[in-house]
Specification:
The complex is a heterodimer.
Chain A: H1 2-17, E1 34-37, E2 42-44, E3 53-57, H2 63-70, H3 73-83, E4 87-92, H4 104-114, E5 120-123, H5 128-133, E6 137-138, E7 141-144, E8 150-154, H6 173-182, E9 197-198
Parallel strand pairs in A: 3-4, 4-5
Antiparallel strand pairs in A: 1-2, 1-5, 3-7, 6-9, 7-8
Chain B: H1 2-21, E1 24-25, E2 29-35, E3 45-54, E4 59-66, E5 73-77, E6 83-84, E7 93-97, E8 100-105, E9 112-116, E10 126-138, E11 143-155, H2 163-175, E12 178-179, E13 184-189, E14 192-198, E15 209-213, E16 226-230, E17 233-239, E18 247-253, E19 256-264, H3 277-295, H4 302-317, H5 322-349, H6 363-381, H7 391-396, H8 400-431, H9 434-457, H10 459-464, H11 471-526, H12 535-548, E20 565-566, H13 569-577, E21 582-587, H14 592-602, H15 605-613, E22 617-622, H16 628-636, E23 644-648, E24 656-658, H17 664-671
Helix pairs in contact in B: 3-8, 3-9, 4-11, 5-8, 5-9, 6-11, 6-12, 8-9, 11-12, 15-17
The chains are: A alpha+beta, B alpha+beta.
């Protein structure tokens, strides 16, 4: 009981710390946020300053998310990003009672079962981070450069379908952006239209 | 062996043909592929429909799904030479889920596709049409991507369309948005995306306006929009996301939609734009009060008010109750104005485009007013006196009830005069929220009543009025002149609305009424008892005429295209059989280009003369309400919408499709057979 009260107060504090800035434009500084990860640890975006950060919106029940997890495409992208020294934050903005909402324990089970490779899996049940970044779909991906500026905003690739067969021939926008950032080149496709299920925000 | 091959082939044909009628049941959207005709002619175009019915609680997506979701994708397998066009969608609905906008269909809908049949297809040839449709279907909670394979078998034939199929396709076609044709412009003004769409002020639309963007990324979908009709344009304002070279989309009013394409350009904010409508309302209110004061000296109001003035002058002597009368008079004026304004606003809410003095658009109302005004004028002229229970008499008499009635009458009669003076204020009343609109109408009434309110409450003013005497009778006679002028103006309006016949009928009714009044007046002069008895039938007869007056047919309003007939394919065939040259044009009230061509070219005297000389028959197709029969005809000429101008030369099989911008010289040359 005591533990829950503390957790509740902490959640309120963390939530209060989340800036409710408007959706950041490409090239603009991104809003900072702090959130609990699936182990109950607080993760602060600013602690990764100097590193490239990838944000991935997740809803395990969404067929478009399943497309990229069941095919192993998302895990491969995560592993490649982490291997390059980038930080991968998977974020779940599903509200309690809605499809895809997970507790920390459920998220741990999901990550283990899918052999997912995020640096952290963050829980955002109030949708504060999601709305602050303008996340609309699952999946929806953002790449933030080492200076804390938005380098990419959009879909994982250029084949907006739920068909795993389309992955092989698709251009992975996230891997491309990460490669270009590493090479010191401008990101050639800095924005695309995210596709997938709507983020199941609280009403 | 031959019979085995026959049986196998029949079986194969049967298997292939079955899906045409069978309904493929997708899990959450039932989709049926229907061809408008199963026997298309070689080289023709046949329309296919994906008749879709989402399960209750589920929604399918429009071409632009909004913040999330996916549009459907069709992969066709067609016989060689056949080509399928893009999916054409009906007007979608908006569905906001947890702050994210979805453009969807929750009710049955049918995207249409145009399929071109190869020109070298032989009669009797089988054309198997197959399509794989990938689409997303969602509830408010979950999404499911679905796939369905649909097929139908067409046989090359005569293109005959079964009647039931025609009716279904007519319904689906009517749900499609219509291309606006005229180029729209848009401007990003700070954080506001402002879209300016040319749209004639006279075009009638109903329902709330909304702009569905087809181009992604121009505006924030979930944010609320402001759609304002501003003269000959519609202005849409929404929060901007980023500037794009071109923005396409669909402007919808209820389930009526117009597709448009917008390029960057300057778009002025709508004229009644200020978000603080209170300031606008206040300004318009003051304007209305001032306008009302001016109306007091208008010929249509002045004489009635003068009746009241005379009675107040009388009241100047003995005590009476001038304040009570002034207040009752004010109440009469203001309440009548409010009632008229309220009716106008109610009609606006109902979607009808009506202007102020809308009741004056009905010739029956005009004729009634003509009789009333003639009666008042004759009374002022001294032809007869009103007996005690009479309407105007009571009005002229002292007493608060009478004062109230005078006020009501003055306000009602004042409406035809308000137009030119009050246009701006009343225009504002129609675009403002309804309480502000009503305030303006109340202001108008207050303005009309103001002089009498002053007379009633300031005794010094009343004392300044001249003493009653013989001059009052003379003044009364003089006042009959503006009243007769009003009657003249009403007769003219009646002539405009109901034609020469209607005007003659109206004047005859006025004459009957005048005879009645005259007769009654003579008997009154002789002191006969029941002086009104013989005049009553005449007056009733005059009133009966009111019922007979009908508005002249709309065509009569276009004198320059005299002889133009409504378009129908049968009439076209008849005229062509008579080997007359035929000019058929298709127009709509909301089509700016059409109106420009009509005013500047088609309806000019030079063109009318050339048409008359060349014995050119003119057929007009009005597509304002999206008539499906006209829609099919327009489509057959490879146009998605209006304007469409067709010239049929006698003897030639196919019409000449004229350019969308007409010139007088072009039509004159064609009429002279050049």
């Amino acid at each position: 009981m005591h533990k829950w009260i503390i957790a509740g107060i902490a959640t309120a504090c963390v939530a209060g710390a989340v800036p409710l800035a408007a959706e950041p434009g490409v090239g603009a500084a991104v809003p900072n946020f702090r959130a609990y990860d699936m182990h109950g640890k607080i993760v602060d975006l600013s602690q990764f300053r100097g590193k490239t950060v990838v944000l991935e919106w997740n809803n395990p029940g969404c067929p478009f998310v399943k497309k990229h997890y069941e095919s192993g495409n998302m895990q491969k992208t995560q592993a490649a990003a982490v291997a390059q020294g980038a930080v991968w934050l998977t974020i779940n903005s599903g509200a309690p009672g809605k499809q895809g909402h997970m507790s920390g324990a459920e998220a741990q089970k999901f990550v283990a079962a899918q052999r997912a490779k995020p640096s952290s899996y963050l829980l955002d049940p109030q949708g504060l981070i999601g709305k602050g970044y303008g996340a609309r779909t699952t999946p929806h991906l953002y790449v933030i450069d080492g200076k804390g500026r938005l380098a990419y905003n959009g879909a994982i690739d250029d084949k907006p379908t739920a068909d795993k067969g389309d992955i092989a021939s698709a251009r992975n926008h996230v891997l491309a952006a990460l490669g270009e950032l590493r090479a010191g080149k401008p990101v050639s496709v800095p924005e695309s239209r995210p596709y997938g299920c709507a983020v199941k925000y609280a009403e | 062996m031959v019979w085995i091959r026959f049986v196998l082939m029949s079986l194969a044909l049967w298997l292939a043909a079955t899906p045409a009628s069978a309904q493929d049941r997708g899990p959450h959207v039932r989709i049926e592929l229907v061809a408008e005709t199963d026997r298309p002619a070689p080289g023709s175009e046949v329309t296919l429909a994906f008749a879709s019915a989402p399960e209750p609680g589920w929604h399918a997506y429009w071409e632009n799904p909004g913040d999330a979701g996916l549009p459907a994708r069709a992969a066709w397998t067609l016989p060689p030479g056949a080509r399928a066009g893009p999916l054409r969608y009906p007007v979608p609905q908006r569905l906001i889920i947890a702050g994210l906008m979805n453009y969807v269909y929750e009710a049955p809908f049918a995207p249409l596709v145009t399929l071109r049949i190869p020109a070298d297809a032989r009669a009797g040839q089988q054309l198997p049409i197959q399509v794989k449709l990938d689409y997303l279907v969602c509830t408010n909670e979950i999404c499911v991507p679905e796939k369905v394979e649909l097929a139908t078998m067409l046989t090359v034939g005569d293109g005959a369309v079964p009647t039931d199929r025609r009716a279904r396709f007519d319904g689906w076609r009517a749900a499609l948005p219509r291309p606006l044709g005229t180029r729209a412009t848009y401007q990003v003004d700070g954080k506001t995306f402002r879209l300016g769409v040319p749209f004639p002020a006279a075009a009638v639309v109903s329902g709330e306006g909304y702009f569905f963007p087809l181009t992604d990324g121009a505006i924030d979908y979930a944010a609320s929009q402001r759609v304002v009709r501003d003269g000959d344009r519609i202005v849409v304002e929404a929060p901007s996301k980023r500037e794009l070279a071109k923005v396409e989309g669909l402007l919808a009013f209820g389930n009526q939609g117009f597709t448009l394409s917008a390029v960057p350009g300057e778009v002025a904010p709508p004229s009644a734009a200020s978000n603080d409508w209170i300031a606008t309302a206040l300004l318009a209110f003051l304007g209305a009060v001032a306008g009302g004061v001016i109306l007091n000296i208008m010929p249509c109001v002045f004489p009635i008010l003068s009746l009241k003035a005379l009675s107040l002058v009388k009241a100047g002597d003995n005590a009476g109750n001038p304040r009570g009368e002034a207040l009752a008079y004010t109440a009469g004026v203001v309440l009548t104005c409010l009632a008229l304004g309220g009716a106008l606003l109610a009609l606006r809410a109902g979607g009808a485009a009506v202007g102020w003095a809308f009741q004056l658009q009905d010739p029956r109302v005009i004729l009634f007013l003509l009789l009333l005004v003639t009666g008042i004028a004759l009374n002022l002229a001294g032809l007869f006196e009103l007996p005690t229970p009479g309407f105007v008499n009571r009005a002229a008499a002292r007493g608060t009830g009478g004062a109230f009635l005078t006020g009501a009458l003055a306000a009602f009669v004042a409406t035809p005069c308000t137009g030119p003076f009050m246009g701006a204020a009343l225009g504002a009343a129609l675009v403002l929220p309804w309480p502000a609109g009503l305030a303006i109408f109340a202001g108008l009434g207050l303005g009309i009543a103001l002089p009498f309110l002053l007379l009633g409450f300031v005794p010094t003013l009343r004392r300044k009025l001249p003493k009653p005497g013989a001059w009052m009778a003379t003044l009364r006679r003089i006042l009959s002149v503006p009243m007769f002028l009003t009657a003249l103006a009403l007769a003219w309006v009646l002539g405009r609305q109901a034609g020469v016949d209607g005007m003659a009928l109206g004047l005859a009714a006025a004459l009957l009424a005048a005879l009645g009044f005259w007769w009654a007046g003579r008997r009154q002069a002789r002191g006969a008892s029941r002086a009104w008895l013989p005049a009553l039938p005449l007056l009733l007869l005059a009133l009966a005429v009111v019922v007979l007056v009908r508005p002249a047919p709309a065509g009569a309003e276009r004198p320059a295209v005299a002889g133009a007939e409504p378009f129908s394919e049968t009439r076209l065939a008849q005229l062509r059989a008579e080997s007359r040259p035929v000019f058929a044009y298709f127009t709509a009230d909301w089509c700016v280009t059409c109106k420009v061509n009509e005013k500047g070219t088609i309806e000019t005297e030079a063109v009318a003369a050339a048409f008359a000389k060349g014995k050119v028959a003119v057929l007009v197709g009005d597509w304002t309400n999206g008539d499906p029969a006209l829609g099919r005809f327009i489509e057959r000429h490879n146009r998605a919408g209006v304007p469409l101008y067709l010239w049929y030369r006698p003897g030639s099989a196919e019409p000449e499709v004229l350019p969308q911008v007409l010139t007088q010289a072009m039509l004159r040359n064609l009429s002279s057979g050049g």
